[in-house]
Specification:
Alpha-Beta Plaits; alpha+beta; ACT_dom; 4 helices; flat; UPF0237/GcvR_regulator; four-stranded antiparallel β-sheet; repressor; 46% strand; 175 residues
Amino acid sequence: MSQHLVVTAVGTNRPGIVNQLTQLVSSCGCNIVDSRMALFGSEFTLIMLVSGSHNAIIQIETRLPVSAQELQLLTVLKKTSRHELIDYSHTAVLQLTLPDAPGVISQVTQFISDHQMSMMGLKSNLFTDDQQEMLHAEFEVKLSSEHQPEIIEQAFAKLCQELGCQQFNLHILSN
């Protein structure tokens, strides 16, 4: 029976770092089920869900901390179960662009939580426009069949107006 492990690694970015980690996972006999990689400042971050036999998972749990130290990475390993897909009726992507201010992301995540949507992804970045620091954020959420897309659209538009968004968009797709 396959076991699952979440692997998180953070460290200074340099060429080949992703290859070194994926090679280690493969050499332990594990499979990369899902992964995300991003750069934050000069820091490389990687999150992977790996699967493998009991022995393969023990091998990665034993070998990764030693390799991480050699690679000057901070790592966290956590056993988990396989992700069970929930049958959501809709996927929504909420996008907004506005002048940056503390708490904006928090207000949108509160909106998502208040409307009992399941957050699946979040991307945000800052950029300068006419010498003003701007935030662009994109949230991917899942909606159940109980959600009424029209109500979500209206409530999101109201939130974006309150936040002073220069641009906002909500795409709702049926699954």
